[in-house]
Each structure stands twice: as structure tokens, then as C-alpha cells.
Amino acid sequence: MESFCSFGPAPKIACVWAQYGPYHFARMAALRRLLSDRACAIEIAGRTSDYPWRRTSSDSNLVTLCAESITEHVPFWKVFFRAKQKLAELGIEVCFFPSYFPKQSFAVLLAAKVMGLKTVMMNESHAGTARAKGPLAAIKRRLIGLCDAALVGGTPHKRYFVSMGLEPHKVFTGYDAVDNDHFAQRAHEIRNERATFRLKYDLPEHYFLSLGRFVAKKNLETLLRAFRDYLDASLVKRTHLVMVGSGPEEPKLKYLCHALRLPVYDKQQAQCTRKSQIANPKPGVHFYGFRQIEENPVFYALADAFVLPSLREEWGLVVNEAMASSLPVIVSEKAGCAEDLLEPGKPELSDQHLAQLIRMLGPSAHQLRKNGFVFDPQCARELSLALLTIESMPVHSAMGQAGRRIVQKFSCDNFSKNALLAARVAVGELPVQQPVQAPIPEMDIARS
Known about the structure:
The chain is α/β, with parallel strands linked by helices and 448 residues long. The chain is built from 16 helices and 15 strands. The protein has helices spanning 22-35, 76-90, 103-114, 135-145, 155-163, 180-192, 194-201, 220-233, 250-259, 296-301, 317-324, 338-341, 351-361, 380-392, 396-406, 412-426; strands at 13-17, 39-43, 63-64, 94-98, 118-123, 149-152, 171-172, 207-211, 240-244, 264-266, 285-289, 305-308, 329-332, 368-369, 372-375. The strands form two sheets. The protein has an eight-stranded mixed beta sheet with strand order 10-11-9-8-12-13-15-14, sandwiched between helices. Strands 3-2-1-4-5-6-7 form a seven-stranded parallel beta sheet, sandwiched between helices. Helix 11 (317-324) links the parallel strand 12 and strand 13 (329-332).
């Protein structure tokens, strides 16, 4: 177990989430590497309404408070009493709990406070997603005030929590992390066998990728309109759009495809085992349905770029995954991750190509970043120009490698170190200091 500075043993920590999924298991594994048995994993229930994850990861010491229920359906007081009992049994000193929603999360906070434990809120809210007004905003501020520290997504999230009354030295970033090394390694392996995987999943030779739930805030209608504009402007017209996900917006999206004269390719079977019967199909929209996380590296590894067009987004972990896979990213400026993960600057290109790129973008050059583009999610034209640029310019390698370097600042190891700092601040052990950031590696697994 690692200790910081001259302090004694770390406080015993419990990380409570509504349900443990792939991201949570990866973060907890890093925390256990740092703290061993002083880090405990607790989930409210084994299922939630939003995420039908299949358990492929495990933690033999995971405690499920209400195994018989879906998180949102568990009665408040049942969560309260079971959390109180389990936190006492485990000898927890600092309880990390997931935000203030659903109400079951507040039950965990209340149980911890009744026991006199220190609490750390894990949260992704920022000014762009804050919707509480009047009395609700006041209640939210009071809830945040009950916390001894917070572990949040990134820079805009820290600003928001400070604006809600938490002292700056009690707010730590790095909450939103995925297993970067896993995605990098899988992408490398898949690219080495790209022909096999393209055939197995019937993937186009070139495609832009969207991966996520089909809900209104994801703004997928604007993505389809931008894709239509891209096809109208492109001289090459070689790049398709692959959409991985499911949700209530799916019928509307397919109808819009037909209205926009975009060919629709339905590939929602578990796997595609043979190539499409159409030879050299026209660029169109491929619907692959919901996929478990272990399949996602296939879609990242073989894509030309990843797109997140959300109207509002607390963070956007899919951007972490895409960047860890060395993929250029095109991200809405409203996404919580945009400020931290899309690094200002220009991609590392030759002077000739960089000058050509700037000329092509014209007044939209402000969208350009080292590892991709940001854009106004209400402007289909800005997004279509980014798509056209990705197709037309040799930016894939430079942007992909830059993204792989940048995302290391949001690794699971960084999450665990900042979680420990938050716990120490919560119990009053640490002076004011900056959060830990993982070093950027000198070598990366580049796109091949």
C-alpha cells in the first residue's frame, strides 16, 4: 500500500456506485493496487435502468446492498439501513458516493453522515448541465455542503463545485477514467488483423463512428444532417457513418435517414459473419445496436474518427475510449470532457499540410485541436466541415497519437491517486496541494 509524504496509513475507503460496470471495476482495481484491503467496493444494486451491462469483470469482494432490485426501484430507507449496516461492518472511515441522483445515492450519503463518517462526492456536473433552479438549486448547494471533499470530472466540473460553495482545495479532478491500456492494446491487436474483423462485423473500409445511447441530448439528428452535408460536399464520398447504440430515438433517426436520402444498413445482429451482399455499397448509415463494452474496441480501432455531438454531456467517457484507441475525435463544445481532453493547438503536421489544413478550415480554424475538433452542436455545418477535413487531410496519425498521450492524464491510476488525496483532505490530513496527474508516456501504441 502506498503512503503519501510522511502520513500514516490511508483512511479506509468505500467507493459506492449505483451499479458496478466496466468503468467502475477498472477504477476500483487501480484503487486496490494503491490501497489493498483499505479500499472497499459497494454497489446499491446489481442493475440499473439505463445500462444493461453484462458482467465480464468481477471483484470477489464487491458488496451489493440490494441484489434483488434495480437501483432506481429500491426503497430509500432500505438503502439507508443496509448502507449503514455495511459501512459499519467494514469499518469505513471515508465514504465515496455517486452524486445526488438517483435518490438512493442520497440515502448512502445520509447513512454515512448519521454514522459520523467523512464523505466525498463523485460527480460530473458542470455549469452546462446544471438544471436545478430556485429551491432545487438551494437544496443541491446544501447537499454539496455536506461533503468533506469532491472527486469530479475535470476543469469545468471543479469550477462548478467551487461556485457551489466547496473550497477549491477540497475539489479533485480525474474522476472520469477508463482502462486506457486495455483500449490501446485491443485496438493495436485488432488493427493487426483488420481484414478479419472487418469481415466478421461487416464494417465499411472507411467510417466515422458514433457510440452511445440514442436519446435526445445526444443530438444525433444533427450528426445525420452533418453527414448528409459532408456527402454533398465531398469529392471522394468514401466514408460511411457507423452508429453503435440503441434507445428511444432510433425510429426517428431511421426516418430522418430516409428523408435525407441516406442509405440505411441494419446490422444489429450479435455479429455479422459475412460481407454485405451489395458490392461497394454507397456511403450510408450503419446501425449496429447496443454492444457490450468488450466489443467496442473493434469499432474504435477500425474507424477514421469518433464523433460526440451532444447538446449537453456531463463528461463523455466514449471520448476517453476513442482517444486511448489512438482515434481522432470530433467533440461538441458542450461536452464536459472537451476542455480537458481536446488540447488547444494544432496537430503535428508538416508545414505544407498544416498550411493547407488552415486554408481549408478558413473561419472555422478555431475548431482545430491537437487531437481533433470541437464544434457548436447546433451547427451542422461546423460538424460537416470537420468530417470533410478528416477525410481530405492526412491528420489521422498525428491526431490519434496526440490523443493517446493526452488521455493518459485521465487514467485509472490517476483516479486512484486523486481519490486518496480527496480522502486525506476529507479527514483533515493533507495541506492544500494540487491533484496528482499521471505522467505522459514517451512512447505510445500508434495507429497502424
